[in-house]
Amino acid sequence: MVVLGLVLAGVAALLHVYIFWLESVAWTTPRARATFGTTEDEARHTRAMAYNQGFYNLFLAIAVVVGIVLVAAGSTGAGATAALVGTGSMLAAALVLLLSDRTKASAAIKQGTVPLLAVVALVIGLLAG
What we know:
Keywords: Membrane, Transmembrane, Transmembrane helix. InterPro entries: DUF1304. The chain crosses the membrane at residues 6-27, 54-74, 80-100, 112-128. This is Membrane protein. Pfam families: DUF1304 (PF06993). The structure is a single chain. The chain is mainly alpha-helical. The chain has one domain (2-23, 52-128). It is built from 6 helices and no strands. It has helices at 2-25, 30-36, 40-45, 47-72, 76-100, 105-128. Helix 1 (2-25) packs antiparallel against helix 4, helix 1 (2-25) packs antiparallel against helix 6 (105-128) and helix 4 (47-72) packs antiparallel against helix 5. The longest helix has 26 residues, at 47-72. The model has no long low-confidence stretch (mean pLDDT 96).
């Protein structure tokens, strides 16, 4: 179950790297504007905020990847901690999005489902092991 949790955590990390790319690199492009529902003018005015926010997503993904590497290297405690911090933060951010703006429920579900599954699988696997 730990392996399943780490695979799901890796998928969540990849998703958050993509979100980083959309927010920090491609924010004003038609693809990013369509994804986040912003106009060209809104994207231009919120570019600095999105750039910063994108890096938060990247850092969460890095924490997860570090956790996966540590578990693979035999440091299960430290690795699981890093993976759970990363995926738990991703899940918490999705919950904040959902609770702060119900119109963003679809985005919150997309952002939070895989981290939720990763957290559940990791915790069950760690408790069973």
